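Weekly sync, protein design subgroup
Attendees: M.S., D.O., the rotation student, P.L. (late)

Item 1: inverse folding check
M.S. brought a backbone from last month's batch and wanted to see whether the design step gives back something sensible before we order anything. D.O. pointed out we never logged the input encoding, so this time it goes straight into the notes. Structure tokens as presented (410 positions):
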């Protein structure tokens, strides 16, 4: 067991740091006044979303690929990823002059696919999930001799990601808690190794999306356990089975593993965009999602914003989801008699409540509609849960038959 726990020594992380000095600059760390005010302790954001290729992945990818032998490099490399690892590998391969083939899931974000291709890699979209794409990549490697660059399950990958932990210690030497998003485990394992080796008192917390959380059950059973299914907006941490290398490190050195809901993730993305003026992807917001809902944190604390590569179309949907979760957006169905002036009256009543109407749609045919009724589908922007409740209360008091699309948020 001890040998597995020390499979990535601190010296390997320092060597990776030296190797990366000519490739990347330390990413900034910024104090978040708003999250600090909510938690009562100093909260800092480690902005890996501002790293080259938009995430921390370049750290591990470059460290792994640069250490290949000349013979291995001549065969080229292959990888599997939903986007961030793909871009990190593609950029590293471009910098090192090596051919790269990247297998991405069929539903991978279009901007991530285009960005990966822009770095010179050949992209093949195979499989419905990261795990299925990885099987295609492994098959390709066996057939061609290309070296598989695993997204998290290799000591050199973990060592490269660990350089983020070294930077945190340099930039925030008084840190007491570090919160990190968790998928396969490469970033969390690297940071835990870098930090715990010299600062064992620092608390390390890993955060998974609750609908794609393979680590809690794996830790209980003592070995990596695959999930049967996953459903989450956080594709960057939607990994069905922990990696063997990071798993042993995380089990030995990480203090706690927690989960956050989809509402937590979208609300955190909206919060980071509005308050910190930064764009992050759902996986990149996981650490902040935890902090926004847990005030019992020893500070100073650092939340790692692991990535910022998000499809603009997906971003619009997620932000609307976040606004709904924050009580600032709702969709209503309102039944009224099909008479002239009723729509205008409804809009006037909503305007009087200082709510902003975004979209309106009429439906005159439906199994639950009477022949003289019309259903108005209306999307409204509100100011928060209290305002939302007030709008619903007044409309119902005025006699409107109102149905809320997300009744659990009433």
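Designed sequence read out in the meeting:
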């Amino acid at each position: 067991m001890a040998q597995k726990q020390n499979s990535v020594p601190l010296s390997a992380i320092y060597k990776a740091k030296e190797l990366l000095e000519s490739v990347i600059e330390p990413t900034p760390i910024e104090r978040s006044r708003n999250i600090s005010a909510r938690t009562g302790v100093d909260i800092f954001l480690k902005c890996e979303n501002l790293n080259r290729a938009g995430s921390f992945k370049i750290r591990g990818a470059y460290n792994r690929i640069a250490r290949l032998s000349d013979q291995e490099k001549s065969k080229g490399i292959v990888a599997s990823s939903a986007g961030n690892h793909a871009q990190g590998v593609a950029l590293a391969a471009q910098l090192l002059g090596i051919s790269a083939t990247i297998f991405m899931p069929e539903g991978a974000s279009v901007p991530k696919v285009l960005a990966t291709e822009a770095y010179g890699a050949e992209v093949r979209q195979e499989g419905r999930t990261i795990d299925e794409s990885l099987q295609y990549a492994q098959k390709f490697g066996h057939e061609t001799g290309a070296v598989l660059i695993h997204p998290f399950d290799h000591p050199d990958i973990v060592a490269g990601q660990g350089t983020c932990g070294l930077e945190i210690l340099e930039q925030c030497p008084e840190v007491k808690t570090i919160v990190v998003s968790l998928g396969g485990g490469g970033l969390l394992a690297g940071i835990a190794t870098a930090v715990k080796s010299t600062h064992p008192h620092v608390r390390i917390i890993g955060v998974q999306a609750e609908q794609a959380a393979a680590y809690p059950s794996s830790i209980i059973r003592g070995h990596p356990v695959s999930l049967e299914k996953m459903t989450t907006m956080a594709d960057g941490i939607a990994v069905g089975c922990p990696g063997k290398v990071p798993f042993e490190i995380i089990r030995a050195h990480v203090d706690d593993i927690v989960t956050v809901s989809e509402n937590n993730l979208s609300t955190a993305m909206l919060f980071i965009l509005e308050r910190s003026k930064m764009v992050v992807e759902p996986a990149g917001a996981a650490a902040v999602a935890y902090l926004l809902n847990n005030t019992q944190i020893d500070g100073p604390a650092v939340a790692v914003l692991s990535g910022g590569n998000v499809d603009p179309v997906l971003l619009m949907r997620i932000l609307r989801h976040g606004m709904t979760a924050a009580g600032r957006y709702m969709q209503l169905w309102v039944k009224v008699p099909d008479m002239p002036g009723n729509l205008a009256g409804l809009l006037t009543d909503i305007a009087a409540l200082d709510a902003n109407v975004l979209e309106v749609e009429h439906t005159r045919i439906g199994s639950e509609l009477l022949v003289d009724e019309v259903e108005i589908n209306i999307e409204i922007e509100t100011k928060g849960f209290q305002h939302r409740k007030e709008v619903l209360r007044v409309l119902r008091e005025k006699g409107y038959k109102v149905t809320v699309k997300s009744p659990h948020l009433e």
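Discussion: DSSP finds 17 helices and 14 strands in the chain. Residues 327-409 form a domain with the Alpha-Beta Plaits fold (CATH 3.30.70.260).
Action: P.L. to compare against the previous round before Friday.
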